[in-house]
Amino acid sequence: MEPARMSGRGQIKDLQAPETRERPSDMLMRAIVDSIVAGRYEAEQALPPEAALAEHFGVSRTIVRESMKRLEEKGLVAVQQGRGTLVRPHSSWNVLDPIVLSAVIAHDEELHTLDELTLVRGTLEGVMAAQAAERAGEEGRSELGAALDRMISLTGDYAQFSEADAVFHRTVMDMSENFLASNIAYTLYSRARSFARFEGDPPSDAIDRTVAEHRAVYEAIAAGNVADAQRAMTAHIVDSWERRNPARKS
Predict the structure, then answer these.
(1) Which H or E element spans position 67?
(2) In degrees, to the nearest 5, what angle opens at C-alpha 165 toward C-alphas 164 and 168?
(3) 79: β partners
(4) pTM
(5) Percent of the chain, pLDDT > 90?
(6) For residue range 99-153, what is the model confidence (pLDDT) as tens digits?
């Protein structure tokens, strides 16, 4: 998502404090993350000075400095002597950071971020399904089968079915023994699930199709079929988003 074009130093009016009971430093940080991701500041533009931020948000300058340090760690800003705190290009943002990723999804009206997230997640979880098929023992296969059975038993309750679905995916991740891939995939999945747009507009047969796709993943893993496990998991994740995606139906 390209930030909107602006010039000079950012205006304090462009920053809005969210209604929250968070710590002041968290509130300030989220407000600035939201403003940057929303495009109210362009790359290389300076944020308002420390004193102005402190006065506007009713916090101490120590809290402002703490927030700027955390924003710098997230890749959104860089503090430069003599120039102030400058917004970094979006290519430098740590989009795996939960706060940054949430803001990016929230401000993506055309859902391109969720499209990209789905492709990345599908690739990672496909690899992990293949690794699960290769490495799974009897205990792992039994746990995955139980997760599938629980999904089937909850088809009449969408909320609980959705939670059981998440458990199935987490079980595959654990079976893969791929810590890095599972950490990244779970971060993407958990952030996306917090947005109603990720749930989208599923068709009437969505649950039946979801069960069938999970069964295909389970059967491939249980049989030790690496290629089929990878193919089934990737196809499930991509196809599931395609049929829910409200942008495809507009």
Answers:
(1) helix 61-73
(2) 90
(3) 85
(4) 0.80
(5) 78
(6) 999 999 999 988 999 999 999 999 999 999 999 999 999 999 999 999 999 999 9
Parent domain of 239: 108-249
pLDDT in tens, 42-60: 999 999 999 999 999 999 9
The beta-carbon contacts of 189-192 under 8 Å, at least 24 apart in sequence, are: 189/121, 190/98, 191/98, 191/101, 191/102, 191/105, 192/105, 192/114, 192/117
d(CA 124, CA 181): 6
Residue 1 maps to a domain? no
Which of residues 69, 95, 121 is at a domain's end?
95
SS3 state at 45: coil
What is the DSSP code string of 124-147? HHHHHHHHHHHH--HHHHHHHHHH
- Residues with pLDDT less than 70, the chain: 1-21, 248-250
**Gap between the Cα atoms of 54 and 221, Å rounded:** 55
Q: Determine, yes or no, domain membership for 187.
A: yes
Q: What domain count does the chain have?
A: 2
Please give the Cα distance from 236 to 234 (Å, whole number): 5
- Amino acid identity of residue 90, one-letter, is H
